């Protein structure tokens, strides 16, 4: 068996074990590992895989690991990276479920979780700005994600409609409006 499978499992296990805040907080760590450290994919490929993972239903970190693994080693790679991502959370949740009643009223634990919340916000903000830069969002077109976020938040527009309109708009722009290169 190739060393790749062990390396990829360990990499995604470490990411799953030490990342708080869910899939979006994992993005900069996954990017650092798969693009910069291991060079398994290019920055552009990572952004494409990330876009696909975000557009599919389910847990984004799992989707990302499955697509990344499949891109690199097909089914075995997908299984290996997915297991590496999911196993730490499963084990942690299992341990918490077994011992939660002992900690549920502990003021120290509650204070720790209050302290983690702002860090999670920062972990989500960093990849957002990084992806915006990679997607070439500038001052002239930054109104698009802002308008989409406001439509969802303030007007209650379904994200599905936003995705559909953005997809149709991107197609029309690329096919009919954007000058040919």
Q: What do these coordinates show?
A:
- With 181 residues, the chain is mainly alpha-helical.
- It is built from seven helices and no strands.
- It is globular.
- The mean pLDDT is 86.
Helix content: over 70%
* Radius of gyration from CA coordinates: 19 Å
Q: Mean pLDDT, as a whole number? A: 86
Main sheet makeup = none
Give the tally of β-strands: 0
Q: Structural class of the secondary elements?
A: mainly alpha
Number of helices: 7
Low-confidence stretches: none
Instruction: Please trace the helix and strand order, writing H or E for each element.
Output: HHHHHHH
Provide keyphrases for this structure.
mainly alpha; globular; 0% strand
Question: What would a concise description of this structure say?
Answer:
This protein has seven helices and no strands. It has 181 residues and is mostly helical.
List the helices and strands and how they pair.
Elements: H1 3-18, H2 23-37, H3 43-55, H4 60-103, H5 107-134, H6 143-153, H7 159-177
Helix pairs in contact: 1-2, 1-4, 2-5, 3-4
């Amino acid at each position: 068996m190739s060393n790749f499978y062990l390396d990829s499992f360990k990499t995604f296990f470490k990411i799953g074990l030490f990342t708080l805040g869910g899939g979006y907080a994992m993005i900069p760590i996954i990017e650092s590992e798969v693009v910069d450290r291991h060079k398994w994919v290019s920055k552009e490929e990572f952004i494409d895989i990330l876009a696909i993972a975000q557009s599919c239903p389910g847990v984004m970190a799992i989707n990302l690991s499955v697509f990344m693994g499949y891109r690199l080693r097909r089914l075995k790679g997908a299984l290996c990276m997915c297991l590496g991502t999911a196993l730490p959370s499963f084990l942690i949740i299992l341990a918490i479920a077994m011992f939660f009643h002992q900690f549920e009223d502990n003021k120290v634990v509650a204070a720790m979780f209050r302290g983690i919340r702002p860090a999670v916000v920062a972990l989500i903000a960093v990849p957002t700005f990084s992806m915006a830069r990679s997607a070439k969002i500038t001052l002239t077109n930054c109104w698009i994600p802002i308008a989409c976020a406001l439509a969802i938040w303030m007007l209650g527009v379904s994200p599905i409609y936003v995705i559909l309109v953005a997809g149709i708009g991107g197609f029309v722009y690329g096919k009919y409006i954007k000058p040919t290169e």
